[in-house]
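To: structure desk
From: M.T.
Subject: fold request, one chain
Message: Could you run this one when you get a chance? Sequence is below, nothing fancy, just the single chain.
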Amino acid sequence: MNTSSEDLLPSTRRALLHRTATAQREGRAPSLVAAVGRQGRMVWSGARTGVEGHASDAGTQYRIGSITKTFTAVLVMRLRDEGLIDLGDPLEKHLPGTGAGRVTVFQLLGHSAGLGAETPAPWWERTSGSLRPELADVLGERPQLHPAGHRHHYSNPGYTLLGSLVEAVRGASWEEVLNREILEPLGMRRTTTRPVAPHADGWAVHPWADVLLREPAEDLGLMAPAGQLWSTAADLLRFAAFLSEGDDRILSAASVREMRRSAAPTEPGSSGYGLGLQLVGGGDGSRVLVGHAGSLPGFVAALWFSEEDDVAAVVLANATSGPLVGVVAAELVAIVADAEPRIPEPWKPLPEFDDELLGLTGIWHWGTHTFVVKAAVDRGLELRPLAVAGRGTSFVAQPDGTWKGQDDYYAGETLRVVRRQDGSVDHLDLGSFVFTREPYEAGTDVPGGVDGEGWRGSGV
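Reply: Done. Structure tokens follow.
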């Protein structure tokens, strides 16, 4: 990843530094590091410190807490893509004897399995993982608090189960698999399960006095897949670029896109959650941000990226509380995206095309609703309503000559061309919805038939 502050305007760089400095001062953090990436590389970084000996930069390690969960989720998605598991599999199929085996892999990834938020006492984040040597010690006597699949309920033990699932299927430790399958391919050499100098020390800051208390940095044991990792701002920007674009050495663009889709209903006022990724914004027209926040005693961390703007931001601080790093990271994204909007890629014609596909483009009608079908890359199609409101989607071509819907209402639904005996197109069938060239076109196979008297005015 190249670093060049010249990639941003001086006014943008100053705004980023000002927001970072303000966050460190107002959050009373011993140190705070921030970095911004654009087009897959770091374009700015800055740091502030108020404690002697704590000077940091984008290469300094901090604990990243629950951002670790996103790494674990990627490892699970790799198992799915290799056909070793299915997201609908009950945990028991691959990891028997946990006491929570009826929940599915999908539910664990999206925190809808109904498991408890925390382990039984003592508080796992501030005590040695040796106190919880078995999964039963992590889950407790009553692991499930809610019916599976009914609601989003954030669960740290759930990601311990996913880490153990990875170990069971791969036959190797979570740490070993993580290094081999994610960290090494992405060049994340400064992301580790234990601190490697230079690294920040974790501190608590007294709420009513400017004094510090050192926080312990425990090895979390079985809970490691939920929050163990140490990383740097530079490394996390590499990870953000992967989560935005995909990398065929790790996960395809389609699979990381799947991770970014909401996986379960959320409580009013809370952010959405995909498969190992938090989702914020978008409902009121605001910028959609994807990523994860994290915290452990002595540290807070946040990673957000905007796919539309192609901008990512990371903020790390070594304080138990104080700096609102998630808010700051979101604001750093906005500073760059608003001041220096993404330059769109040039229009280019499709690399290849055929007359059969061209014959499917243009105006189609579902009943009296009007839609436009456009051709896309790799023989894909796009269906969009002509009016402002209405359901649309993109379709990916399938080997059997059909197309599969990718978005919203039509996600996973099949679009097929229905032809007459002479080979001409009669209509398009989309999950039983019939699309014709004219509204209720006579002579086509419209469900329920078409009135033989045709269209009429009020005087008939």
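Reply (cont.): The chain has a mean pLDDT of 93. Let me know if you need anything else for the meeting.
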